[in-house]
């Protein structure tokens, strides 16, 4: 275990590091040089990050929703170090290895029953690219290359690579400047807001009409189940997901579910699709897959999808990342899944949900707050105007919390292992932020 006191950095070295970072290193969705400083983290343990000056912050973001077990966990550390002594990496072309097989066994066992084939990728964005390729090759293999478009909904986010950007929200999303050079897909309005809201019949009729009118050119439907993440942190009712499954079946479309943010219990069910009691034809996994230790993702599909692709043009799925099924990542991913299932993760998530609900519900009364919503281990405050990221983070850090707002949203997705007290501190920080809007 790291001695957090020894991990501190001298003020002079911290300033040198910060200055070089500011002038030379790109950060996500940031200019160069950076408009705001990045805070140097020198260690992490439990649910806390330790900054260069010794400040400790509860990580309310789970490192962008991945570190569900917190940091420096002995079980996950052991999985990495044990595998490191055997083999850090080996190409997956023509070779296989025990960590990959063990992880695939777990994923096939845990995901909805029809999903039996596993393709390992090295990031969430890539696993969505693979899913899109699967859908396109599926129809090419049947002599139907004209079925090359996807139906999706506004408000979605699926990654930053070109195939992914084409199915993200084309107007209010982060990729609007690339619209003219992206593949043209079909967008329905965003699902009506509210997990418990009664289904809107007019909206369901609009979905049905779009699918029927364009079925001849559609390869499939792609959505984030129940929770639209980086596109707006919107929650929608399971009835809409069931309707998409029914439309896919009616028109012979493949249903692709992007479970990168929703998978592994984040919404209160193991998978987002479990809320609707449906199964996709293709599922994308990532983020919490390795417990936040290493980058890894997976695309799962049914026997039918795999068999048609493999019997068609090229005789193979045309993708193969260099670090596909990396043994270190596969080992820690299998250990992370075992660790999750060894605990009462549902109780952990339910407890977080209850504390966040109690803490965030009163923020609705503040004039700068448009909405507050909680589902599973996700808490969201939506402001009426875009928030000042730096100012909001200063308030959070003054409360000992790390948050990363965007747009009009101040949100948290804490590690499941947060104590009631730690979750309460997160809620208190968000309340203080809401009061300042």
TrEMBL record:
E.C. number(s) listed in UniProt: 2.6.1.62
GO-annotated molecular function: adenosylmethionine-8-amino-7-oxononanoate transaminase activity
Enzyme class: transferase
Keywords linked to the UniProt accession: Aminotransferase, Biotin biosynthesis, Cytoplasm, Pyridoxal phosphate, S-adenosyl-L-methionine, Transferase
Residue positions binding pyridoxal 5'-phosphate: 124-125, 258, 321-322
Gene3D superfamilies, sorted: Aspartate Aminotransferase, domain 1, Type I PLP-dependent aspartate aminotransferase-like (Major domain)
Pathway: Cofactor biosynthesis; biotin biosynthesis; 7,8-diaminononanoate from 8-amino-7-oxononanoate (SAM route): step 1/1
Cofactor entry: pyridoxal 5'-phosphate
Catalytic activity: (8S)-8-amino-7-oxononanoate + S-adenosyl-L-methionine = S-adenosyl-4-methylsulfanyl-2-oxobutanoate + (7R,8S)-7,8-diammoniononanoate
Location(s), subcellular: Cytoplasm
UniProt-annotated site: Participates in the substrate recognition with KAPA and in a stacking interaction with the adenine ring of SAM, residues: 29
Binding site for substrate: 64, 157, 287, 320, 404
Residues bearing the modification N6-(pyridoxal phosphate)lysine: 287
Self-association and partners: Homodimer.
Function statement: Catalyzes the transfer of the alpha-amino group from S-adenosyl-L-methionine (SAM) to 7-keto-8-aminopelargonic acid (KAPA) to form 7,8-diaminopelargonic acid (DAPA). It is the only aminotransferase known to utilize SAM as an amino donor.
PANTHER family (UniProt xref): ADENOSYLMETHIONINE-8-AMINO-7-OXONONANOATE AMINOTRANSFERASE
Family stated for the protein in its record: Belongs to the class-III pyridoxal-phosphate-dependent aminotransferase family. BioA subfamily.
Name of the featured protein: Adenosylmethionine-8-amino-7-oxononanoate aminotransferase
Organism encoding this protein: Actinomadura rugatobispora
């Amino acid at each position: 275990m790291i001695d957090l006191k020894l991990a501190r950095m001298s003020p002079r070295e911290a300033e040198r590091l910060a200055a070089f970072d500011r002038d030379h290193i790109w950060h996500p969705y940031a200019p160069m040089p950076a408009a705001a400083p990045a805070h140097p983290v020198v260690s992490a343990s439990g649910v806390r990050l330790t900054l260069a000056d010794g400040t400790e912050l509860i990580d309310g973001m789970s490192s962008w929703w991945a570190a569900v077990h917190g940091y420096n966990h002995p079980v996950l550390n052991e999985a990495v170090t044990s595998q490191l002594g055997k083999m850090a990496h080996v190409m997956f072309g023509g070779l296989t290895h025990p960590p990959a097989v063990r992880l695939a066994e777990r994923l096939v066992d845990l995901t909805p029953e029809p999903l039996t084939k596993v393709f390992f990728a090295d990031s969430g964005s890539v696993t969505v690219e693979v899913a899109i390729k699967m859908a396109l090759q599926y129809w090419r293999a049947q002599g139907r290359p004209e079925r090359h478009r996807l139906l999706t909904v506004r408000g979605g986010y699926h990654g930053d690579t070109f195939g992914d950007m084409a199915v993200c929200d084309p107007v209010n999303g982060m990729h609007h400047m690339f619209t003219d050079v992206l593949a043209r897909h079909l967008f329905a309005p965003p699902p009506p807001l509210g997990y418990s809201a009664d289904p809107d019949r007019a909206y369901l009729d609009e979905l049905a009409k779009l699918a029927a009118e364009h079925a001849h050119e559609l390869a499939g439907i792609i959505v984030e189940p129940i929770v639209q993440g980086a596109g707006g942190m919107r929650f929608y009712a399971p009835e809409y997901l069931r309707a998409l499954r029914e439309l896919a079946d009616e028109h012979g479309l493949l249903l692709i579910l992007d479970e990168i943010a929703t998978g592994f219990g984040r919404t209160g069910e193991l998978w987002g699709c479990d809320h609707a009691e449906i199964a996709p034809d293709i599922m994308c996994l990532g983020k919490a897959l390795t417990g936040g230790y290493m980058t890894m993702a997976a695309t799962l599909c049914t026997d039918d999808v795999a068999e048609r692709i493999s019997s068609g043009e090229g005789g193979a799925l045309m993708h193969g990342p260099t670090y596909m099924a990396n043994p270190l990542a596969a080992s820690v991913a299998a250990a992370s899944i075992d660790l999750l299932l060894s605990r009462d993760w549902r109780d952990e998530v339910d407890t977080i949900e209850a504390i966040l609900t109690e803490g965030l519900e009163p923020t609705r009364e503040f004039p700068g707050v448009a909405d507050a919503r909680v589902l599973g281990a996700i808490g969201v405050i939506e402001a009426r105007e875009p928030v000042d990221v730096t100012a909001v983070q200063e308030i959070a850090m003054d409360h000992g919390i790390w948050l990363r707002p965007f747009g009009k949203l101040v949100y948290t997705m804490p590690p499941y292992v947060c104590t009631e007290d730690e979750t309460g501190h997160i809620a208190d920080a968000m309340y203080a932020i809401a009061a300042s809007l």
